[in-house]
Amino acid sequence: MRGGFARLRDVLEGGRRFLITTHVHPDADAIASELLMRRLLKERLGKDVVVVNDAEVPGYLRFLSGTEEVRRWGEVSGEYDVAVVLDVGRVERMGRVREAVEKAECVVNVDHHRSNGRFGDVVIVDTNASSTGEILYRFMKEAGFKIDRLDATYVFVAVLTDTGRFSYDNTKPQTLRVAAELLEYGVNLRDVMNGLYRSCSREQMALQARALASLKTNADGTVAWIVLRWRDFEETGAHPDDTQEFPEIPRSLKGVKIGLYIRELQDGRVKVSLRSNCGMDLNRFAMAYGGGGHKAAAGITFSGMSLEETQRFVVGEIEAWLRKGGYVSPRRM
């Protein structure tokens, strides 16, 4: 077993009370990785474990067994020997849970983002992994822990979603080998696909109609974007968590190199989700403006600008970035 994994096993076996957390606005990899780690600690090692996030579990992930055990910040309190931080690139991305994490005696950081700040006492960051779930799967195999169908389902959900259903550049031969192994554990592919992609509500469909109606492109059709205001969520009754697949709408338009999903948050900030079809590094672009993510999928949250100002700014910067072949020289906002 490699050094990082050996150190991780020592910490997991030696700790008594564990806090598990992930980033704000958690995605499928984040939640699935938390559930996998919770099960490993509680059922395999008999530890006292609590999973606490800044926000609730997104509705589209509640089909996963164990999500009812995930707590929101403020629902639990206490001190922890070990804080296990999963899929978090920077400490501020933990939101309010950061307060509890920083009080822990030992902080474990497991992640696959290039933007990871290498915080913590035990740091396992593998940017070649498709997902944090894949890293945990490799750890469990190398450490000799039993893996069953539910464990494999968590990992499969993490891998499937973070590779864009095996369509992003982080889909490698090893990724598909891992997926094949997971299916051999008995993962029910139909149940996973139904849970993730075939359970849209009428409210979500109504919101998607508004997103499609907002679709615009730049002059040469290389950049496309959709825009949603906060009132669109209020008027349709849809939840922001219902828009996990919305960034794919502008990206799927023929000829588009960069797709943008721009939405207003309840507090007035503006979140921009970026998707690339051209091989340029969106993580590099996003980091220049305080965001981050992956090469083909990244995100930025802007404050101090209106929705319209943010749209103009981001589209203009993306166009300039494309003209320069992916070189980022951020100007003042």
Can you give me a brief rundown of this structure?
By secondary structure, the protein is α/β, with parallel strands linked by helices.
Report on the structure:
- It is a single chain.
- By secondary structure, this protein is an alpha/beta fold.
- The chain has two domains: 3-196, inorganic pyrophosphatase (n-terminal core); 202-323, Diaminopimelate Epimerase, Chain A, domain 1 (Roll), CATH 3.10.310.
- The protein has twelve helices and twelve strands.
- The protein has helices at residues 3-14, 28-44, 98-101, 132-143, 149-162, 173-184, 189-197, 202-213, 230-236, 248-251, 282-287, 307-323; strands at 17-21, 48-53, 70-72, 82-86, 106-111, 122-125, 216-217, 223-228, 258-264, 270-276, 292-293, 297-302.
- Strands 3-2-1-4-5-6 form a six-stranded parallel sheet, covered by helices on one side.
- Strand 11 and strand 12 (297-302) form a beta hairpin.
- Helix 4 runs antiparallel to helix 5.
- The model has no long low-confidence stretch (mean pLDDT 94).
